[in-house]
Specification:
The structure holds four protein chains of four kinds. Chain A is of the alpha+beta class. Helices cover about 35% and strands about 20% of the residues of chain A. In chain A, the strands form three sheets. Chain A has a five-stranded mixed β-sheet, covered by helices on one side. In chain A, strands 4-10-9-6-7 form a five-stranded mixed β-sheet. In chain A, strand 11 and strand 12 form a beta hairpin. In chain A, helix 1 packs antiparallel against helix 2 and helix 4 packs across helix 6 (about 310-320). By secondary structure, chain B is mainly alpha-helical. Chain B has a single domain (about 40-225), classed as Four Helix Bundle (Hemerythrin (Met), subunit A) (Up-down Bundle), CATH 1.20.120. In chain B, helix 1 (about 20-55) runs parallel beside helix 6, helix 4 runs antiparallel to helix 5 and helix 5 runs antiparallel to helix 6. The longest helix of chain B is centred in the C-terminal third of the chain and has 41 residues, at about 150-190. Chain B is elongated. The N and C termini of chain B lie far apart (about 45 Å). The model of chain B is unreliable at about 1-10 and about 150 (pLDDT under 50). By secondary structure, chain C is mostly helical. Helix content of chain C is about 65%, strand content about 0%. In chain C, helix 3 (about 75-110) crosses helix 13, helix 6 runs antiparallel to helix 7 (about 205-235) and helix 14 (about 425-455) runs antiparallel to helix 15 (about 465-495). Chain D has two domains: about 1-55; about 55-85. Chain D has three helices and no strands. Chain D is flat. The mean pLDDT of chain D is about 95. Classes of the chains: A alpha+beta, B mainly alpha, C mainly alpha, D mainly alpha. At the A-C interface, helix 1, helix 2, strand 7 and strand 9 of A face helix 3, helix 5, helix 10, helix 11 and helix 12 of C.
């Protein structure tokens, strides 16, 4: 069980008042709101028809009127009414389904982003890590207009990064990377929540997203004490852990050279091929033998437990910085 | 099992809520089959977990399967299939109202079942001795060709395999014990032979349960023992 | 409709004294195999658990009046919502209609003297009680704080609350609903009276038959999933631990494979009750009987292929998400057809507004709101925004409290004269029904607004801006509590001093109304002969 | 089911067991695995048809048996649909 009771940082809620429809802080948020209004309209219409029918029938056919009963709907036309109604519903549902899944794919399928931010959920705080190494807890500063890709994982239980203003939510699952990307279009302070129940202080695991104009963002960056950027931190780790001993740049070591390996197709010992993306590199660090590269001996020790999630992400950024291979550029 | 309240007469009278014996027999069989449906889905969730984890960790699972004793398991499977035969013959003898044959075949079935559990126990004990039983935090030492000896992640995934192996075979063993309990009751009834038609009906239902245990073991044997590297 | 002749005949059937006056000793209640008495055993125990769960809900609502978590500590709030979930889902909603009204009425409606396996029926109640004891033991041992969903790896590796006791409690109560389901399936297949073909079965029987199928097909997967959690916590042999390469999403697949069909276990019997009530109080045959039956079976069977819509944001693959979203839209169509048929049944009827009818019409409004918001959640992009927010809480409370509990109340008021032979006061019943309707809308409508504003579920403290809607919701909860306390009072009052209700006070169709109320021990003098359809209202 | 059919079914089961064990010696794992599952399915079918007398029982009981197998397939296939297509 969780050993010591981890302390939870203080909460800084953005004071933005009750917004029944959260601000549309990105163009995607507007699209989701159109879908919401469309569904509200359809539901309102159907509820209206239902309520009207029930009230009219209740008033016109109440028993106390003692009126002579009219003819009931014939079996055949009744069946046609049912089937017609069902088909009408199916058609509108297929439309709504298509609309919803298009937006869903736009949000989650990986596209190249201007800046990749790592979000690591930990019992009861969110830790963000910018490419330049800046780290924040429960607060995320972003520039307007740049496409932000979130690389989300968790160190302990399942959390869920929820940004209502961007209509975005993604679970942080331990042992797995989940992705989402969005493009802030309006400066401002927005809410940030943990949506998946994760223990005692689940309710305190929240904060704010601060979207700044480009100039203010640079100023905010400058204000930060200069901390080695993520790739440099990765390089330092690469040396301190002694990876360089086998992964020699010229490939003469016991292990494959890592120059330009990110994004390339790697031939494995069991004959299959896999793209060396973040998940492959992470697995190779934590579980080296599972996807052994063809032509090499399974001698790499596992580092699982010795390097934290942030450090693995730093190593990945370092390997990325060793040059993207040609295939990755075409994707 | 619906007990009937008939007197000494050959064909016993149906229970109060049934109109005739045919309805009661049909209800008994349908009831048993629906119960077997729930048991099938109980094991189904275990097989679904196996399918998912086998797909995610193919190499290590295949290699871990190599550490199981295939010959013992093959003998066990043959034993269980034979106990299916002896159970069927017991049912047929009860149908033909042959008291001694019914008792004989029932005893054979129970003997085969007990032997199966004994061999299974021995198999578990040998796995315990090879430190391949990660139950209750026992030391788990897994040697794998895939990695240098004592490697943590391959050993971790192998531990996952053995966890699932012990869950599946343990659940099956529990069902075997319940089956043996039912057979013991049927044996006692068969010895007294007070109402042969009732014994015939209940033995058919007990036979369904025993044959179901065979079916589950066939798939456990295939999934855990045969899918080797 | 068949006329059942009450002539004296050979002694095989019991003398015509009713099932209640057969004896009030402890033995006659605790060892009964009469499906009607077992229905009462269930009715009493699920009512106790209902008020136990409702107390937890009221405490949570009081806590949520203030944004800061000041009334309760986070630990106790988490234990309260877990208790509320577990008790309400497994100890009230799932057995509510099948085990009480279903147990009482199904044999009578198919023209049988009792269930196919009376002893298993009693065993099902004892297994339910044993499960209840374990759950209460879990509460006494400090409560469980994993939510009713027991998500791993929190429930297996990180929670140090009484997870094992709660998991064992739910593991045991699962067998109770398996036994009930098994009894209903066999009774409906083998015990129908001569002439009672499948096409002449009342929709209440069809609904309970479909529910029984789901209980039998889905509950075993829950049982083994909870077993896996128990084994991981006790013997350390877990398959969900990410460090061993286990997959937390595998747990979610196995859990929701049961839990989504479970919500259909809760709503289908309610649909059966509403069909009976609307047909009786509008004096009209049900509109589109075949459409209704096909919809019931479609909901029961398609309910098994939609569970992935609980995992749209959980890291499940995008294509599986799209597949599950498509199936979820399809499974909404049969429910819409049923709503259309209920409304069309009112057309050109002679409608009277007794308490059961008010409950049925409330069900119509509340279930439709719940159903439509389900469509919001089926649309993938909206579910990403709305998942795990109060929008989802409002959606399933509209369907479970607005649908299942309202129909349970309606069914209770509709068949109360048959169960007890007494009539309750019409005025009080109408007040309670309206209080429930108003209270429910006032409690859960603000939660839809909170949901779209982004307020997540299971929050013990929340940003100050949401407090106005939370206060409104707590106000509604108060009215709702009134709506549930009133029936407890006037129904128990009617047991003693309610006026005698004849065999058929509502002049309703159905074999169960052909017997005196309260009905004799073996329901019918002679196995009735059925020669026409179920809703021959003139 | 008669004594003769029971014994024949038993012999068939042992033969299938032998086949599935011998299949272990093949080298291509795809062929091996498919043979293993084919034999397992055949053995299960034999036990259900003969020993559980599905061959001679009412269509309702056959429906229950087929329904159970279908529901397990439903659970496994849809869960695999997620695992296999996860990026």
């Amino acid at each position: 069980m969780s050993s010591e009771a981890p302390q939870t940082p203080a909460i800084e809620d953005p004071q933005i008042g009750l917004k029944l429809i959260p601000e549309q802080a990105s163009e995607y948020a507007q699209q989701v709101d159109f879908l919401y209004y469309a569904l509200l309209g359809i539901s309102g219409l159907l509820m209206g028809i239902l309520a009207a029918l029930v009230v009219v029938f209740a008033v016109r056919y109440r028993r106390s009127l003692r009126r002579e009963r009219g003819e009931l709907i014939a079996e055949r036309s009744g069946r046609r009414l049912e089937i017609g109604f069902a088909l009408l519903l199916c058609l509108s549902f297929i439309g709504l389904f298509y609309w919803g899944s298009q937006l869903y794919l736009h949000l989650y399928s990986a596209t190249d982003a201007d800046v990749t931010i790592d979000a690591v959920g930990k019992q009861w705080m969110w830790k963000f890590q910018h490419p330049d190494g800046t780290r924040e807890i429960n607060t995320l500063h972003l520039p307007v207009g740049e496409t932000v890709a979130l690389r989300i994982t968790s160190q302990d239980v399942i959390h869920s990064l929820s940004l209502p203003a961007f209509r975005l939510k993604r679970d942080a699952v331990p042992g797995m990377y989940t992705r989402a990307q969005f493009t802030p279009t309006r400066a401002g302070t927005y809410r940030l929540f943990c949506a998946e129940y994760c223990g005692t202080d689940h309710a305190r695991m929240r904060g704010k997203v601060v979207v700044l104009e480009r100039a203010d963002y640079q100023q905010w960056l400058a204000g930060k004490v200069d901390v080695p950027d993520r790739a440099e931190a990765g390089a330092q780790l690469f040396q301190s852990l002694g990876c360089g001993a086998c992964h020699k740049a010229d490939g003469s070591g016991l292990a494959p050279a890592l120059q330009g390996v990110f994004g390339s197709r790697v031939k494995l010992a069991d004959g299959s091929e896999v793209v060396a993306d973040e998940a492959y590199i992470r697995d190779s660090i934590v579980e080296p033998q599972a996807q052994l590269v063809a032509g090499y001996q399974p001698v790499m020790p596992s580092f699982s437990g010795q390097v934290s999630e942030e450090e693995i992400l730093q190593l990945i950024s370092y390997i990325q910085s060793l040059g993207q291979s040609r295939e990755a550029d075409e994707q | 099992m619906p007990t009937s309240n008939s007197g000494r007469s050959g064909e016993s009278r149906p229970e109060v809520q049934f109109d005739d014996m045919e309805q009661q027999r049909h209800a008994g069989l349908l009831g048993m089959w629906v119960f077997l449906l729930t048991e099938l889905l109980l094991f189904g969730a275990i097989f679904a977990s196996f399918a998912i984890l086998r797909v995610r960790h193919g190499a290590v699972f295949a290699e871990a399967a190599g550490h199981l004793d295939l010959s013992l398991a093959a003998v066990n499977t043959a034993l269980l299939l034979s106990s299916g035969l002896t159970m069927a013959l017991a049912e047929l003898s009860a149908g033909a109202r042959l008291r001694r044959a019914t008792i004989g075949w029932l005893q054979a079935t129970m003997a085969l079942g007990a032997l199966f559990l004994a061999i299974k126990g021995f198999e578990w004990y040998s796995e315990f001795r090879h430190q391949l039983m990660p139950v209750l935090g026992l030391p788990f030492h897994y040697s794998s060709a895939l990695a240098a000896p004592g490697e943590q992640p391959v050993a971790a995934v192998a531990e996952l395999f053995f966890n699932l192996y012990f869950i599946a075979t343990g659940l099956h063993a529990v069902h075997m014990l319940v089956g043996l309990g039912i057979l013991a009751v049927m044996l006692a009834l068969a010895r007294r032979w007070r109402r042969p038609d009732r014994i015939d009906r209940q033995l058919r239902i007990a036979g369904l349960y025993w044959a179901f245990i065979d079916v589950v073991w066939i798939f456990i044997f295939t999934c855990f023992y045969l899918l080797r590297a | 409709m068949t006329s059942v002749v009450y002539s004296e005949n050979e002694d095989r059937h019991a003398t015509p004294e009713d099932y209640l006056s057969g004896g009030w000793s402890i033995r006659s209640w605790l060892l009964t195999v009469d499906h009607k008495r077992i229905a009462w055993l269930y009715a009493v125990s699920i009512t106790l658990f209902f008020f136990f769960g409702s107390a937890a809900a009221l405490l949570m609502r009081l806590e949520l009046i203030t944004p800061a978590g000041d009334l309760l500590s986070p630990e106790s709030y988490n234990r309260l919502f877990s208790l509320h979930g577990i008790v309400m889902v497994w100890f009230f909603l799932i057995p509510s209609i099948p085990a009480t009204l279903g147990n009482f009425l199904l044999p009578m409606m198919v023209g049988a003297r009792d269930m196919a396996f009376p002893k298993l029926n009693l065993l099902s109640w004892y297994v339910y009680t044993l499960g209840g004891i374990f759950t209460i033991a879990a509460v006494i041992a400090g409560g469980v704080d994993t939510g009713w969903t027991f998500y791993t790896p929190y429930s297996t590796l990180f929670s140090n609350s009484a997870v094992l006791a709660a998991a064992v409690g739910v593991f045991i109560v699962g067998f109770s609903s398996i036994l009930t389901g098994l009894n209903f399936v066999v009774t409906t297949h083998t015990m129908r009276a001569p002439g009672m073909t499948w096409g002449r079965l009342p929709l209440f029987v069809w609904a309970n038959y479909a529910t029984a199928l789901i209980m039998v097909l889905a509950t075993p997967v829950l049982t083994v999933t909870l077993l896996l959690i128990g084994l991981e916590r006790t013997l350390g042999i877990g398959i969900f631990d990410p460090a061993l390469g286990g997959d937390p999403l595998l747990f979610q697949h196995l859990f929701w494979f049961y839990s989504h069909p479970a919500v259909y276990i809760m709503i289908l019997p309610a649909m059966g009750v509403v069909s009976e009530i609307i047909a009786c109080f509008s004096r009209n045959p049900i509109f589109g009987y075949t459409g209704m039956v096909l919809s019931i079976m479609a909901i029961a069977l398609f309910g098994f292929i939609v569970w992935g819509h609980h995992m749209f944001v959980s890291g499940q693959s995008l294509y599986a998400g799209i597949l599950f979203s498509f199936f979820t839209f399809l499974v909404a169509v049969p429910s819409a057809i049923k709503t259309l048929n209920w409304t069309a049944t009112l057309f050109r009827g002679r409608i009277s507004f007794d308490a059961p009818m008010i409950y049925a019409l409330s069900f119509l409004e509340l279930f439709t709101v719940g159903g439509l918001t389900g469509i919001f959640l089926a649309a993938l992009a909206l579910d990403v925004h709305l998942h795990d927010t109060y929008f989802v809480t409002a959606h399933f409370h509209y369907i479970m409290v607005g649908g299942a509990v309202t129909a349970y109340m309606g069914g209770l008021h509709f068949w109360w004269p048959k169960l007890t032979g007494r009539m309750y006061s019409r005025g009080w019943a109408t007040t309670a029904a309206l209080a429930l309707l108003i209270g429910l809308n006032l409690t859960f409508y603000p939660q839809f607004l909170l949901g779209y504003a982004g307020m997540p579920r299971r929050y013990h403290s929340y940003p100050d801006d949401f407090s106005i809607l939370q206060v409104l919701s707590t106000l509604g909860a108060g009215v709702l509590a009134l709506g549930y306390l009133l029936p407890l009072i006037y129904l128990s009052w009617s047991l003693r001093r309610g006026e005698k209700a004849g065999p058929n006070p509502w002049d309703a169709q159905g074999l169960e109304w052909q017997t005196p109320s309260p009905p004799p021990v073996h329901n019918f003098r002679e196995t009735p002969e059925v020669n026409e359809g179920p809703y021959a209202y003139k | 089911m008669t004594n003769r059919t029971a014994v024949l079914c038993w012999l068939g089961l042992l033969a299938l067991l032998a086949v599935t064990l011998l299949a272990g010696a093949l080298d291509s794992s795809a062929l091996r695995y498919s043979l293993h599952f084919l034999c397992a399915a055949a053995m299960a079918a034999l036990v259900m048809l003969v020993f559980m007398r599905l061959y001679t029982s009412s269509p309702l009981l056959r429906l229950v048996a087929v329904g159970g197998v279908m529901w397990i397939a439903l659970l496994i296939l849809l869960t695999l649909a997620d695992t296999l297509t996860r990026s």
